[in-house]
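Provenance

Sequences were taken from public entries as deposited. Structures were produced by running a predictor on each sequence independently, with no templates supplied. The record for DUF559 domain-containing protein from Blastococcus jejuensis is shown for reference.
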Amino acid sequence: MTGRAAAKLRIVSLQRLTGVFLGSHAVAEGAVTRAQLQSGLYRRLFQNVYADPGLPLDHQLLARGAMLVMPDDAVLGGRSAAAWYDAPFATPADPVLVLVPPTSAWRGPRGIRVHRTEVASGEVRLIENAREAVRVTTPLRTAWEIGTLERVGNAVALLDAMVGAQHLTYESLERLAREGRGRWGSRRFSKVVPLVDGRSQSRPESLVRVACVRAGLPAPVPQFVVQSAGRWLGQVDLAWPEHRLIVEYEGPHHFEEHKIVQDDGRYARLIAAGWRVIRLSTADLWDLDGVVARIRQALALPLLAG
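Predicted structure for DUF559 domain-containing protein:
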């Protein structure tokens, strides 16, 4: 058994099958049988990689599983690394992004996306806890893969969150865009950076804002504080103050009974003060063109008295 395999086996022993582990090593140690693995007693993440079913099934769990099968010279990057930088927007349905050297022959199991690229040693960060150590790219290198590999809206949402959490700054992103000119993906990255706004507090806010700007509409103000006659009326997701137009995204928690009452009262006060309110739900995000059309129409209407 190689030193790397032995180290992984020791991790299994310490976790006692309560974390993420390699099935073959757990069977070899006698901690579990093949029949138990095949029975569904543990959650299968990838081929030969399993997890305690009591752990939340999120993208970070899958990334932790990927660590057990990645080569020693590989590193988690892009949206998968962003989960450790307060941008956990990748879902369990999204492939884990693993960066490997250009010469690497490793392809990875199904569920892992391999991106071949050079990564300097200074662009790797080891995040350790009592159970494991996870290799991820640094915030700036993470930003590069996000900006070059993700769709524009999703890239902006991830970078918005990282800037908002102070893992990145606008200045560092602009500098990275300048220094990266001529590299593969640099044009794409340069289109993403000007759209980043760390004031956004959710992925839906970022997606709607980016869709509006790319459609030629004026950029809204994220997390705008609405006041009327010196009275605070609330902080809203997106606003066009000069048009007194507000867009609010309502996630599932907004439909809880007490929250509905609170929201209705808040919206009534905003409307009474002369503001228009467009309320969006998760279903609206599947038709951003339709959302933009609604906003465009509202921006063209005359202001309400307030």
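The first strand starts at residue 20 and ends at 22.
The chain has three domains: 1-55, 56-195, 203-300.
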